Amino acid sequence: MKLLEEKVLKEGIAINENILKVDGFINHQVDPALMKAIGEDFASHFEGKGITKVVTIESSGIAPALMTASAMQVPLLILKKSPSKVLNENMYQTIVTSYTKGTSYELTLAGHLINEHDHVLIIDDFLANGEAATGAIRLIRKAHATVAGIGILIEKSFQPGRAKLEEQGFFIYSQVRVKKLGKDLIELA
After folding, report:
1. Percent of the chain beyond pLDDT 90?
2. DSSP state, 84?
3. Is the pTM for the entire model greater than 0.90?
4. What stretches of 35-145 adopt beta strand conformation (E)?
């Protein structure tokens, strides 16, 4: 997606060969016009796939996933990263390790909000090693729902996430594919 590519190149900050900061327009400060365009692009790309729900992991995926759900006119489900004091019945849970943060967290989905009739689109901000998407897939499968596809804002194509997910038969659409990162270097595929 050209608009997002331009933002990444102009405003993204490459910290090193693995970390790309996009906090000025995606995850700390959110550009609403960009999110609307991202949502419309995902909706257009996955049109006709029978999607009944959009799923994302809190928190950076919420804005683009909400705009995608809005454009598709379907509900958005947000997978929680910490256990809830009020959600304690009919929950699906799995452990996910964050590549960027180097920590693990318990991902939770409220079971009453999803069922075997749902055909889900997963939206996430980054794809690196595929751990977050794999965790989301595990929860969706526990609910007996199906995954229609995975929409990624920024893919680090030099890391194994895409290959891991494609080996499992999942379709991935990335709006931006980064070929190489280095200190102050962002090279797109």
Report:
1. 85
2. -
3. yes
4. 53-57, 76-79, 91-97, 104-110, 119-127
Q: Are 161 and 133 in contact (CB under 8 A)?
A: yes
pLDDT digits (tens, 9 = 90+) for 79-115: 998 766 665 678 899 988 876 677 888 899 999 999 9
> 59: which 2 tokens?
């928190």
Residue pointed to by tokens 């995608």 = 68
Residue pair 138/115 in contact (Cβ under 8 Å)? The answer is no
Query: Which of 63, 70, 72 is closest to 44 using CA atoms?
Result: 72
CB of 174 within 8 A of CB of 165?
no
User: What gap in Å lies between CA 98 and CA 43, rounded to an integer?
Assistant: 27
Q: Tens digit of pLDDT for each residue in 26-47?
A: 989 999 999 999 999 999 999 9
| φ, ψ dihedrals at 46, nearest 5° | -100, 15
Q: Torsions phi, psi of 2, nearest 5?
A: -55, -45
